[in-house]
Amino acid sequence: MPQFSVSRSVPYTAEQVFAIARDVARYREFLPLVRRSLVRNVRTGQDGRESFEGELTVAYEKLRVEEVMTSDVVVDPEALTVTARSDKGPVKHLVSEWKIVPTGKNRCDIAFSVDYQLRSRTLQFLFSGMFDLAVRKVMTAFEERAQALYGPAIS
User: Fold this and answer.
1) Cα separation of 128 and 57, whole Å?
2) In this structure, are residues 84 and 72 in contact, taking their beta carbons and an 8 Å threshold?
3) Over the stretch 121-151, which tens digit does the pLDDT of each residue have?
4) Kindly report the CA angle at 49 between 134 and 27, in degrees rounded to 5?
5) Given this model, what pLDDT does residue 115 score?
6) Are the C-beta atoms of residues 76 and 18 closer than 8 Å to each other?
């Protein structure tokens, strides 16, 4: 199964970056190709972890592809992770994770990883060549979102 990951060090606090990662309902506002993002059935456990169903409508106009991706999402504020898992719709297997690690007063590392397999071999073939680029674009969009919300980097 294809696996992709990208990490960056950013000049924002881990709390600021984690707030962006956990806000799945707003992904449509800044992530490339995401047309719609919904959150349903939010539950908070005694351990502080939040779980919900996240739904993203992803569209790629050049290929005339639009798919609804539904995942079970777990937000862990202690570990600073947001993990999505799915085996529904066009996805045979998907695990994506945001992991934020504080590295200083106003600095943290962001790691984003995706392990996936699509049900359609044709779509798998079409997307495999550009998925690494897509993951990098997601990370860039994430960094741009932090700048839009929190202002320019603080040294």
Assistant:
1) 19
2) yes
3) 666 555 666 666 677 888 889 899 999 999 8
4) 30
5) 85
6) no
Distance CA 66, CA 33 (A): 9
> By the 8 A CB rule, do 33 and 140 touch?
no
Q: What's the whole-number mean pLDDT along residues 48-66?
A: 82
In three-state form (DSSP H/G/I as H, E/B as E, the rest C), the secondary structure along the chain is CCEEEEEEEECCCHHHHHHHHHCHHHHHHCCCCEEEEEEEEEEECCCCCEEEEEEEEEEEHHHCEEEEEEEEEEEECCCCEEEEEECCCCEEEEEEEEEEEEEECCEEEEEEEEEEEECCHHHHHHHHCCHHHHHHHHHHHHHHHHHHHHCCCCC
Q: How far apart are the first and last CA of the chain?
A: 40
